[in-house]
Every structure is written in C-alpha cells, then in structure tokens.
Amino acid sequence: MHELQGFPLLLMHRTPEPELMEGLEQALAYAAANFAASDQALIERLEQLFPRGLGQRLVDLGCGPGNISFRLAERYSGAAVLGIDGAAAMLAPALQQLAEQPHLQGRLRFEQVCLPAADLPGGYTAVVSNSLLHHLHDPQVLWRSVAQLAAPGACVYIKDLRRPATPQAALALQQLHLADAPAVLQHDYIASLHAAFTPEEVQQQLHEAGLADQLQVAALEDRYFEVWGQLF
Predict the structure, then answer these.
(1) What is the CATH number of domain 17-161+195-230?
(2) Could you give the strand order of the β-sheet that contains 124-130, starting from the edge strand earlier in sequence?
(3) pLDDT over 70, % of the chain
(4) 42: burial class by Cβ within 10 Å (0-12, 13-18, 19+)?
(5) Whether the predicted pLDDT of 111 surpasses 80
(6) Residue 8 pLDDT
(7) Is the Cβ–Cβ distance between 163 and 198 less than 8 Å?
(8) Domain coordinates of the chain in residue numbers?
C-alpha cells in the first residue's frame, strides 16, 4: 500500500451513483431516519472549528430533508439560513417541517436548485455541506459553488463519506452502522460508499480548484472525511 500526503491509497475504484435522490420511498426513509447523533456532532464540530461563529448568512448545500439546516437555524439564532437541494422529493419534508415551526419562518428557507447554478447570489458568511460531494459526478461542481457563494472570510465546512478499501470493507461498515435500518437506506449506504471519494482525491480536487491553501482535509472517524477553513 502506497501513501500520498499521509493518506493511504485505496483499492476500490469509485462507482458514481445518481446525482439526485428523487424517489418518494427514498425521501420518506431519509426523513424518518434518526440521524440526530451525527447531525448534532456536525454542529458541535462547527462550534469547535469556528468559535467566533458563522456570521449572518449561512447556506447548506445538498440539504436533503433539512436536518442540518434546522440545526443551524436553531444554533445560530442571529443568522439567516438557506437550504439548497436539487430534488423536490427530498425538500418536501423540510418544507413541511418548516411550516410547523413559525418561529423559524423568515429566517430559514429552502430552495430547489441544481448545482452548478450561476445565478445563485454569493455573499454567504458560511458554506456548509453534509454528504453532497459523493453524489456529484463532477466534484468540481461543489468546489466552484463554494467559491461562488462564499463571502471573503467565509467559514467552510464539508463532511462526507470516504470510500473504503474494498467492497468487503463497505459491507462491514453497513453492518456496523445500519444493520437495523430500512432496506432502502442500507442499499443507498453501500452505493454511497462506492461513490465516495478518498481524502487524497479530495486534496487533489482542492488543488485543481485553487482552494488547497485555504481549506484542509482530514479523515474523520471510521468512515468520513471533513474539509474546513476560511476563504481569503
């Protein structure tokens, strides 16, 4: 096994999955799933990395049913939060939940947008994304969108699955973390692990995007990586 910039080179080649999650069964399963622990861990990680806060305008890319968007709006009560996703089916639970929380209306909103979207205005003080990158056939779509949307000095935090070494390792992670999950989530989890990037691939993506001097990448726990920093 060789290494590049401190990361092991893995053996399982990437197999992309569909970019949009448009199935009703998928949307309902994700909306009903309990990701509270990992979602809260992401918010706590943001607090650790950016103790001065995230500013006044936050955007959550690939927000799905809005789990992170809602937590951002609750935690950063002085900020406006925009959740963006390309799939109407995934946004439907977020819009329904928002309708039931009038205290967040006007400060939290959701839009159906497929990236890249050249007409999206920038100026966001924080750009956050959880589990979007592995869905993209062209990873530069995410990094170009980050650069487009971020204001100078913006906080950036990206978290995603990382591709394991072998199909057997992917199955082991599925059994460890989703053994009791609905079949649709177990199927999607395996597909996502196969579609995920390795940290060294993400490091190369950052070099190509001209962001390697501003953002850093590291493995996280047994199945994730994270990218964080502030843009010049």
Answers:
(1) 3.40.50.150
(2) 108-112, 80-85, 57-61, 124-130, 150-161, 224-230, 215-220
(3) 89
(4) buried
(5) yes
(6) 52
(7) yes
(8) 17-161+195-230
